[in-house]
Write a structure and sequence with these properties.
The protein is mainly beta. The chain has one helix spanning about 1-20, and strands at about 50-55, 60-65, 65-70, 80-85, 85-95, 100, 105-110, 115-125, 130-135, 150-155, 165-170, 180-185, 195-200, 205-210, 220-225, 230-235, 240-245, 260-265, 275-280, 280-290, 295-305, 305-315. It is globular.
Length: about 325
């Protein structure tokens, strides 16, 4: 009986101690993994969308030329590469607004699939040279099925005299259905080069990409980066990839004609497009980072029948 009484007493003491602990001021230890709704659960931060305030720059940057690519030089000047009936030309600027045309042709018309050359984009090489990627076409007919577009490259030590290197992306053999056009190249943090370009793969209307470890041999990446928009222009801001593109045909895009941008953390999956501005007859954007909070977007515009020009908008980051 004494043993039984002692055992009962001990149980009572333990129970009282447990109940008194429930009212204690000591903090309660909670297993977060077992209570996902707890206030202590760590929540992934929400990524803030990059927002701009845009203003149209007065006048034109270049007349009698279009399809621009802007390249910032090491001395702070900016060189604008553009196209006309002679091929790919250039103009130079100290302020990114007033440009002086430079003599000569950067990349001349050739034969076959380089009978018409346009849509330049440039990456700087580690040895101080620069490589231009550009579109070569067998005619100036405007759409897939009417002509064949491929992507070529040329290299230069001064940005003025280019030596052609040959074919980089063959649209007839890599699944682009004869249409790899309007390239824009970017060097990734690991040194690889990715080219974004307009593709007719699977008869879709959008922007695809290809990747290269040496800048010469490219492998097509699966899927589309952006559907329905065309004419990509890439820039990295705040560790994000920002792609600017054009809506030029409302039969394909659900967006009104104009210029838009989307963002990505990996350069492959992009968000829904955000409007820069709506306007007809604008195309081929190119982007210049003026400073940490300012960008300038250059684009082609048809001022009147057969009279192209390059115009621009300046954007300030506001969010």
């Amino acid at each position: 009986m004494k043993i039984k009484y002692f055992f009962s007493l001990m149980v009572l003491i333990i129970a009282m101690a447990f109940l008194s602990g429930c009212g204690s001021s000591e903090p309660e230890i909670i297993d977060i993994e077992e209570t996902p709704d707890s206030e202590n659960t760590q929540v992934e931060p929400v990524t803030q969308k990059l927002l701009f305030s845009w203003n149209k720059d007065s006048g034109s940057r270049i007349e009698d030329g279009s399809v621009p690519f802007i390249h910032k030089l090491k001395d702070g000047r900016a060189r604008l590469y553009y196209c006309n009936s002679k091929g790919i030309l250039s103009a130079i600027s100290n302020d990114g607004l007033s440009f002086t045309k430079e003599q000569g042709v950067r990349v001349s018309l050739g034969e076959g699939f380089e009978s018409y050359v346009c849509d330049p984009t440039i990456v700087d090489l580690q040895d101080g040279r620069m490589r231009m990627y550009y579109k070569g076409a067998d005619s100036q007919n405007p759409g897939p099925g009417q002509s064949i577009h491929k992507i070529y490259s040329a290299v230069s030590s001064d940005g003025l005299t280019f030596q052609k290197e040959g074919l980089r992306i063959d649209s007839e053999t890599n699944g682009d259905n004869g249409w790899a056009s309007v390239p824009d190249a970017i060097v990734l943090p690991d040194g690889r080069v990715r080219i974004y370009y307009v593709t007719a793969a699977a008869m879709e209307h959008g922007i695809g990409s290809a990747i290269s470890s040496d800048g010469l041999n490219f492998v097509k990446e699966s899927g589309l980066r952006i559907s329905n928009l065309v004419d990509p222009a890439l820039i990295r801001i705040n560790n994000k990839y920002i792609i600017f593109a054009a809506s030029i045909d409302e039969r394909f895009a659900s967006l009104p004609k104009g210029i838009y941008y989307s963002e990505s953390t990996d350069g492959l999956d992009f968000s829904e497009p955000i409007e820069v501005f709506q306007e007809s007859n604008v195309y081929d954007p190119s982007i210049l980072k003026v400073d940490e909070n300012t960008v300038r977007i250059f684009y082609g515009k048809v001022m009147s029948p057969k009279l192209p020009a390059v115009e621009s908008h300046t954007g300030k980051i506001v969010g």
